[in-house]
Write a structure and sequence with these properties.
Radius of gyration: 20 Å
Order of helices and strands: EEEEEEEE
Distance between the termini: 55 Å
Number of strands: 8
Strand content: 35-45%
Helix content: under 10%
Shape: flat
Largest sheet: 6 strands, antiparallel
Oligomer: single chain
Number of helices: 0
Strand order of the largest sheet: 1-2-3-4-7-8
Structural class: mainly beta
Length: 125
């Protein structure tokens, strides 16, 4: 078992009520660090759940500390992704990249989906 501090971000309602927007989990073992962040919708249903692994030294000098593992779960979308730095000590910090390094090209003409587009339901006949 681990000890956590929880910090809830609430939004005030018009009828003197409040709803939970986000919950921050701070791990108390060995110091204080953000270990988890949860986001909730207007009905109080969990939308995003992000967990941050223990702090790891990055770069050859080891001067920067970040979690080497981050997991994002979106239960309503049945989606989970985990990102892990396999060799954080080999990370090159403060490196300039060309502008096109972050451009994805669809060279195979695969179908594209705009994930930010609003979902619309087809009209019923």
């Amino acid at each position: 078992m681990r000890g956590y501090y929880l910090l809830d971000e609430l939004q005030a309602g018009a009828d003197n009520s409040a709803r939970l927007l986000r919950r921050f989990w701070f791990d108390r073992v060995g110091g204080i660090r953000l270990a988890r962040l949860q986001s909730f919708d207007e009905k109080g249903v969990l939308v995003n759940d992000v967990t941050y692994g223990p702090l790891t030294r990055f770069g050859a000098e080891g001067t920067v500390q970040m979690p080497a593992t981050i997991s994002l779960t979106r239960p309503q979308d049945h989606y989970k992704i985990t990102i892990t730095y396999q060799a954080p000590e080999s990370l090159v910090l403060d490196h300039e990249y060309p502008a096109d390094a972050f451009v994805l090209t669809n060279s195979r003409n695969l179908p594209e989906v705009d994930l930010d587009a609003k979902k619309t339901t087809p009209p019923k006949n």
